[in-house]
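I'll show a sample.
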Amino acid sequence: MKKIFLSTFILIASVCFSLAKAQNKISVTNLQCEMLNNPEGIDVLRPRLSWQIKSDVNDVKQTAYQILIASTLENLNANKADLWDSGKVNSDESVNVVYKGKKLKDRQNAFWKVIVFTNKGEAKSIENAHFSIGILTYADWKSTRWIGYEKLSKDDSISQFSKLSARYLRKEINLKKQVKNAKVYIMGMGLYELYINGNKIGDQVLAPVPTDYTKNVKYNVFDVTSQLKEGKNMLGTILGNGRFFAMRQDYKPYKIKSFGLPKMALQLFVEYTDGTSEVIRTDDTWKLTTEGPILANNEYDGEEYDARKEMKGWNTTNFDDKNWVNARYVQEPGGFYEAQMTPNMKIKGEVKPISIKATAKGTYILDMGQNMVGWLQLKIKGKSGDQVTMKFAESLQADGSLYIANLRDAKTTDIYTLKGEGEEIWEPRFIFHGFRFVEISGFPGKPTLDNFVGKVVYDDMKTTGTFESSNATMNQIFKNAWWGISGNYKGMPLDCPQRNERQPWLGDRTTGAYGESFLFNNQTLYAKWLDDIKYSQTQDGGLPDVAPAFWRYYGDNVTWPGTYITVADMLYQQFGDQEVIKKQYHSMKKWMVYMEENYLQNDLMDKDKYGDWCVPPESLELIRSKDPARLTDGQLLSSAFYYQLLGIMKKFAKISNAESDIAYYDDLAVRIKKAFNTKFFNAATNTYANNTVTANLLPLYFGIVPEDIKEKVFQNMVHEIEVNKNGHISTGVIGTQFLMRTLTNFGRGDLAFKLASNKTYPSWGFMVENGATTIWELWNGNTADPSMNSQNHVMLLGDLLIWYYENMAGIKSNPETPGFKQIIMKPDFNAGLTYVNASYESIYGLIKSDWKKNKSALEWKITIPANSSAVVYLPTNNASSVMVNNQKLTQLSTFFKIEKNNLVLNLPSGTYILNVK
């Protein structure tokens, strides 16, 4: 019967395809290696290749492909695939196709294209793509020395508020022949800017991405062929501090990890047109000064810049550097050298301020209109020595002054000293702020809005998701989420961007990373973060709560370190990435065993650290609830969560060819489930523990509740929300990760909608009603104790964004075919919205879901990308009420699948208009 169903709807679709009058135009685009566009210096010898198929007709399926890869572009254009010609491979795989050609060597260039064969015709990739292999072995860096300056300048200091001037380095080189190709490989710790002949190389900022530099150090690669010329050339770098120095250097050394003073290593490989080559490396002939204009750059405290100290032409030839010193050889950071496989940060947009107001004390308050992350560009005229101070904050006090108590000891201040030469334009290089408001002092004259532009900075990743609905509050929450998520992408996922923390807490992204993946193409960021977590693992198997472990928080619990496993599962579910699981499996299992051996008592996980963090407190002034009835038992949290992780690890064992581990996971799961129900379930009341929403929610979502009492437990959970909490949220970070989907899966999408659209405390809408333009750290973030009320956190989003896409828009990847090879399109049309218009750029292409309804009819426009398909659920059991692309469904076929009062279609790729009356 299943075969009849599938073939029938292929027939239905083929009839609908006749409506598309255009010719079969099929193209192959978006060629990617390791999900990067034309990457330089990748760290993989068997890279994975992907592409997208685009077409103006429906029902396009790839039936075969042929990949051609050559060592030169000339060879590729001549179809001479001297590295790999896959031949015609009969397969529908178009993502993560593993390279199987000749062994790739260090710094190997590869140019490639693909020919795709489909059921509608053949197509070639529109453009050729390129990737290159990095420097794969430590030995290949052995002749390159780390250089720096291991001294403080007269105005530098090491303290709680460390201050260190930037290092400027330069090296004049003489290239005696015409350059054919040139690439530079650079490790600049903590942050760098690279110049050749006065021109900045690349448009990245705050590079490279941060790591624990004692474990691994990232290098960046740039093709600089066009920047070099025969004869004299100048290489120049500026080294900032970043995470390497001065976050809080030598302050609380028992907690905060420090790495030393900035340093760098660089290799420039030059190939000449006559076939010879040359390598220029860092050594002690490079010249260095700390007397440049960047006097200080500290991520917490800001950047100080004295334009009077600018050194015109310092990064060009013929500059007089007699007062510079020779760079010194310094100790390497200690970590292994790795190519950076995730994009750098960039300036991704601009924000223009909306108002500027004078204060009684003679300063000005600038309002950007949006809580943003990045910095402020300044345009100014004045006298030499005039000094402008800009202090950043997220909100204002009642008297209109900056509210800075929630910043703790972060100074968040930039200082610019003018040189007095006409209009001066300045912006910082090596810091960022989280802010909406700026206090301007010392400005010569009266500033206007035109003097300032906000620069929005986050990792260079594409926004892949859009969402709009009939509910204005939900729409604003979505915008707030976008701003919060993007702002906290800084080469790793931060908790907040403004105070003296800015740490990659694991627990903030346990489920959050999943929701974020609908908004941003965050695959490589989170794959890199899993490496950070792996590198932070202790020898006996423990994991920290923060990774990279810039803070030494090794307290052992389940709910925070368990993110290691849930994020890997997200990468598999959303991007079809199996390799990341295989790469991390051993370390993940090591942690699972570590927790079981050390903390499993009587078949329950007897260790929890944070509880259901940040449940809404009973008082608007409190950070944490004092009412024990609101708090969920820590042993319940850790045991339920560990049970869930066992199920994921069982899946991972199959993917990793470690089937022998499955029995271990199964045995533990059976024991924990039995002990959990014995300890926590109250048969008299059909509730768990003290009947908090989280206490009932976790066993329901994780499948611990016996089948015959699930509905009773769920109704108790609903009663707690609807009656005892007056239709408001009462979960913290843990419970909120599963709340919205559980309500909808059990038939109460209307209650989930109520939680999503509430405007009173506690709710996401309460934040909106109180002026939030990002997501708060606390449900009462505008009134709570300032020691913990960041106004730009994302941890309380929980599974809200997942619910937006999967349950409201109906865009969900079928778990059986991860990566959106098949899409499940099943919106809850009756939750409370009257229209949703959403899109998501999956690895196969653009998915759209645009529906609107009234009391009598539903119209739903959907787009399914080529080489994918969708299972589509319509809210009717009456086939005669359905039109597909203006044709009656009953006229297309007499076979239909009805499932729980839904009519189910299996549709191939294409665009459809579905009408239900």
